[in-house]
Write a structure and sequence with these properties.
Strand 3 (about 50-55), helix 3 (about 60-70) and strand 4 form a beta-alpha-beta unit. By secondary structure, the chain is α/β, with parallel strands linked by helices. It has an 8-stranded mixed sheet, sandwiched between helices. Helix 4 (about 85-100) crosses helix 7 and helix 6 (about 145-160) packs parallel to helix 9 (about 230-250). Helix content is about 45%, strand content about 20%.
């Protein structure tokens, strides 16, 4: 169903035990291929799944491609057309919808640019038997030196602020038990921009949760531009650290 961007309406469409949260922006060229390879992965494992495809105000033909894909497989695809709000807040919308859907047991968050390789998912899924949170750790990266350095700086500074080793805080390949994510979201303001880091930071402070990591190779983008705006990244980074400090104080 092609639904609005309100979490309650989205959650009513989620009935599978595994829901994949995928924020999408201007991926007309490759989104059909990315969706196809993930569907093949889940079908091979015989899973009950849905892909929650969040079109974050794309300016190209992404929306039209998503509508076509949804018509071809309405049982497994839920497409949300929403105003642009950025990657982090799009993730939050997806998270909120998933935790409000009682039939959902697991939430997988991945990106839409093909960098998250489905070949590793079987190991993620197997580790859920012993863990509440299964996160990828990018051991090898094909997406350029600048992005690798940015992630290392993010890890160093966010770990220092939160007083925890966050390992790979902005990795977009993560499998989370619904109840664990639901509890974490209650502690994070919806206005937080970089929800990947905020969610991990809060989850890490829960001593009851069991953790597992899967070493992954992070592919280069399968399409589109792999540019990086250093000034924008720096601005977002400082804002994130400021928000993390406030978040940490609120958790005490």
């Amino acid at each position: 169903m092609y639904v609005s961007y309100y979490p309650r309406e989205v959650s009513e469409s989620l009935i599978a035990s595994l829901v994949v949260v995928m924020p999408i922006y201007n991926e007309e060229e490759m989104i059909a291929s990315v969706v196809s390879e993930w569907r093949s992965c889940f079908e091979a494992l015989g899973l009950s799944y849905q892909l929650l495809l969040l079109n974050d105000g794309s300016k190209d033909g992404t929306g039209d491609v998503l509508k076509r894909l949804e018509k071809e497989d309405a049982a497994h695809l839920v497409v949300v057309d929403k105003p642009n709000s950025g990657h982090g807040r799009s993730c939050r919308l997806g998270y909120d919808a998933c935790v409000a859907a009682e039939k959902v047991e697991w939430i997988l968050q991945i990106d839409s640019d093909g960098q998250c390789d489905p070949v590793y998912f079987k190991e993620f899924w197997e580790k859920r038997e012993e863990a509440d949170c299964v996160f990828g750790q990018r051991i090898h990266r094909d997406d350029g030196f600048a992005r690798a350095v940015t992630s290392k700086i993010c890890k160093l500074l966010s770990s220092l602020v939160m007083g925890r080793d966050l390992v790979d805080p902005n990795v977009p390949y993560r499998l989370m038990r619904r109840e664990a994510l639901k509890e974490a979201l209650l502690k994070i303001p919806a206005s937080f921009d970089i929800h990947n880091v905020a969610v991990l930071s809060v989850l890490k402070r829960n001593p009851a949760l069991r953790w597992a990591y899967v070493p992954i190779r992070f592919r280069d983008r399968q399409g589109g531009s792999n540019s990086i705006d250093l000034l924008n990244v720096m601005h977002m980074g400082f804002s994130m650290l400021f928000d993390l400090r406030k978040l940490k104080k609120s958790l005490k």
